[in-house]
Amino acid sequence: MKILFLEIDLEREWAVASLGPAFIGAFLRHHGHEVCVLRVPLELSSDRLIARIREQSPDILGLSLTSRQWLRARELVRAIRAELDIPVIAGGLHATFATETILQSPGFDYACLGEGELAMLELVEALEKSPRPLAGGLRNIWKSGGDRPELRPPFEPIDELPFMARDMLDERYGVVHMSTQRGCPFPCTYCAARQFNDLYGSYAAYGRRRSLQNVLEELSAIQSEGELNYVIFLDDTFTLNHAWVKTFCRNYGRYFGVPFSLHARVETVNQRMLEDLAEAGCRHITYGVESGSERVRQEIMHRHASNAQFCEGFRWTRQAGILVTANYIIGTPGETRADIEQTLSLHDDLAPDDFGYFVFYPYPGTPLFHLCEREGYLPANYYELPANHRRSILNLPGLSAQDIEDFYHRFTEVRERDHLARLVEHGDSAQQQTVITQVAQSAAQG
Known about the structure:
This protein is of the alpha/beta class. It has 16 helices and 14 strands.
C-alpha cells in the first residue's frame, strides 16, 4: 500500500518535520509498503493540496498532530474528503489525548493512540484486505464511531526499530535531528510527554533508551550517506542516565566530534558532566526553567529544583563553554503577578545567552488541563481557539488575559535589552543600531 503523510506547517517557513511519521515510515517501508510525505506550507491552498494528493494517488492519508496544528489540519481534511474518498488517520499527541474531538470532525476515519509503528502496520494490512475494516480489533487504532481500543505494549526492544526515514524530515545543511529515548520520568503537570507514561501505566515503565551502539550506528549511517555538520538531540532530558552520557561523550567525541545541542534539567547535570559534554562537542543546552517562583514550580508544576540549583547549573554550563538557553512559561493557573516578577528577577540572575517565553496553554491530557476543566478556566469553545503561546485563552482568577499580555511584552523588551547588551559587549555597531531601532519601535507600539 501507499501511505502519504501530510506535514501541516503553521508559521515558520522551514522547520524539521514531525519525527513520528519518519519512524513509522521507516517501519512500514521495512515491511514492504510505500511511504512518502507532503509538506503543506501556509501558502498552499486546499485546492492545490488536493491536486497534489491526486498526483500521489495514496491509499491512506496520515497526519501527526500537535494541538497547535489541529485547527488548520481539521479544515484541510474536511476539504480533502469533500473531493477524495480516501481514509484518513491522525496520530501524535493531540490524537492521543483529544481523540473524540478529532473523530467527531468530518473526514477523520481513525486516530492512533500512543506509539504508531505496529499499529499502523496492522491498519495498513487490514486496509489491504478491506477498504474499511470493521470497528474494533485493532489495538491502538480508534475508529470513528467505534469504541476506545485496547493498547498494545510499547515496542520492545527499541533498538530493533529501523532508523528514521530522513527523507521525510526535510533536514538541511547537514543539520540532523536525533531521538535516543522514549518517555519522560518527570511528573511535570503542564507537559504532555509525561502522559504517555500514564497512558501505558498497565505495562512496565514506558521510558526506554536506545543503546549507545545503536545511536552511534545511526550517526555513522547518516555521515556515510551525506553531510553531518550539526546534531540536535530532541530528547526531553538527554542527561537522565549519567553512565550512558559519560560513555556517549567518550565515543561521540572520538568518532564524530561534530557540534551538537541538547535539552537538560539542572537537577540532572553536574560540573564534570558538562565538561565532558563540552569536550565531546556540545555547544548548546536548553533548560526548562518555566518559573522563577519556587512555589509555582513545586506546588503547581511539580518541578522541584531550587533557584539556587538553576543558578549553579547555568554557571557550570557557561564555564564549560556551552551556550545556554532558558525557557519560561507565563500565565500558569495559580500564578500571580508577583510570581511572574520573580521569573524576570531569576532571569537576570541566570543571565542566559538566549531565552524563550511562552504563554501557558493547557494541552489535553495534562494534569493542568484537567485542573482548568474542573475549575472552569477553559472557555466553552476551547477547541476552536488557536494554541499560539502568545495570548492566554483561560479565564484565570487573579491574573487577567491583559495582565498576561502585558508580561509577554515585558519579556519581549527584556529579550531586546539582552540582545542589545550583547551587541554592545561585542562592539557590532551596525547590529547595535538595528536593535536600538527595534526597541524604539516596540516601545512606540506600547
